[in-house]
Amino acid sequence: MHRSTSTVRRACAVGTTVALVGLTTGLGIMTATAANAETLDTTQPIVAAETPAPVVSDETPAPADPTAETPAPADETPVPTDETPVPTDETPAPTPTDEPVAPETTAPAATEAPKPTETPKPDVTAKAADATVTIEGTAKVGTRLVAVVTGFDDEAGYKYSWTDQDGNVLSKAASYVVDPTDVRKTITVAVTGTLPGATETSTVESEATAAVTQTPAFLGEDGQPTKAGATQDSPLELSTAAGDAFSHTFRAQGFPEPKYSLAWFDDEELEDTTYFDENGDEYIPEPDEQLPYGISFDASTGELSGVATDAWEYTFAVTATSGTESVTQYVSLNVEAGAPLGVQVYTIDRAQLTADKQRTWIIAPDGSVYTVDAESTDDSFSVVFTDGGRPTVKQGGTLVVQGGLVDRYGNDVLADEDEDETVLPTVTSDIASDVIAPDPELGDFGVVGVTFPHASVHNLSVAFGSFSTSFAVEVQPTVTGIVAPVPAPPAAAAPVAPVNAGGQLAYTGSDTTDALPWALGLLVAGAGLIGARFARRRRAQR
Fold it and tell me: CA 20 to 30 Å from 409, out of 30, 47, 194, 473?
């Protein structure tokens, strides 16, 4: 609405008063004088300054006060007529008198100038509704929030106050970087400024943000975000020993509250590998199949716990998801062998080392035997385990023997990595004619050959330090005579890098299929190359 100023209103009032006075003076309205009730000073004769114009109305003008002295007549007095003169726009000229005297006049009461009204103050309350402040930015830890102000006088400046839902003042600046302590809270900003045309300040407040969110991040033992396990090349390293209780809780910060799940360590391996179930049917495995037997993951708490029995290095990943954001931690869990329990022996007829069909015997520290029949082709690999059996070789043939210390679960107790040499097992026989020597081709890998010139049952013993394991070998006679080979001189054994594919050999009431990795891990070809190949296939069959 347009509003006039006090200066304009005063000018209009004064102008109106002047116009009214001028108009009454020009028209000669007698009522202006008659309205004055005061007695005139009669010491001097008063001469009318002008002849009044006839009033156009039926009402007869009121006579003058009889107490007042009659003024001297003018030289020419207009002769009244019966006809009432018609008023004109022009004011008749005053009749001159012999001795003009300036009359004393009083201002008519009816023409009093109105008093000017007081200039109203601007309605600050009404205009404050036009001023607003909004928050620009996402309410997320690490994000900068900016107050966007409209409606205030920019030149007067603003005052800011950022607060959380508990009323704690966070900042007094025009912007605010969300802090981790603000997680789960809402934030508002109040701005104080001056409206245009106002002299007093006003304060407006923004709407509250949504609850502050936080990108998920895994935490270290110190409770701070960690980069451990951020990539496959630098996984989070965990360790335990076979048979020991293990527990590790994955913790991540973030809001909404992070949810945990297992993930694949290597997606490419999952895509490039064909997996088969126990029935030989192809299937897609679940991520928890990457974990050691006996270890489980609780997605509701992020805890990885249990008792592992297979010594091996396992890799997997854990994902924490907060809202629509996720972070992955890559993990390497190294299960080490426990304390040594005894010597475990692997043996095979040397003539079958390169054959597609192989029969291997595993002799546990307690002397129990497991027979493993394996068949390998370019497209398939099959294994059959049988409890019991006895190592068998033709007269004049050679058994290759490889063994080492194992813990109570059959895990190889490896020598100290700092040692330059691995001590060959000490192999003895109860038949003096048996020829015992490092294998001419595999001796550097800790494989010992035993050749049997005579057909009979031979008892062999394999020892490492104070531990030893004994087993019987059936040497079958042949039709032709056998020439005993000349034993080769012992050669220094090179360090052996045994391969353990994570299988378990339990010595009482166990599933013998868990002994498969040993059957092909350390025995076949001595160097463990076939064992490594089978370890991959075994994982593909889990």
Answer: 473
Q: Does residue 161 sit in the same domain as residue 93? A: no
Q: What are phi and psi of 320, to 5 degrees?
A: -110, 125
Are 72 and 141 in a shared domain? no
The CATH number linked to 306 is 2.60.40.10
**How far apart are alpha carbons 525 and 355 in whole angstroms?**
11
Same domain, 350 and 459: yes
pLDDT tens-digit series, residues 87-105 = 444 444 444 444 544 455 4
Q: Which two tokens stand for residue 128?
A: 């404050």
Q: How many domains does the chain have?
A: 4
Answering whether pTM is above 0.90, one says: no
Question: Residue 204's closest CA among 128, 277, 265?
Answer: 128
Question: What is the C-alpha to C-alpha distance for residues 494 and 76, in angstroms, rounded to an integer?
Answer: 161
Query: Residue 529 sits in which domain range?
Result: 342-541
Tens of pLDDT along 466-491? 999 999 999 999 865 545 454 444 43
Same domain, 102 and 231: no
Q: How far apart are CA 395 and CA 454, in angstroms?
A: 6
Reading phi first (left if > 0) and then psi (alpha if -120 to 50, else beta), residue 229 is in left
Helices (H), 300-414: none
Query: pLDDT per residue over 303-321, tens digit each?
Result: 999 999 999 999 999 999 9
Burial of 69 (0-12, 13-18, 19+ CB in 10 A): exposed
Q: Which of 491, 449, 498 lies closest to 337, judged by CA?
A: 498
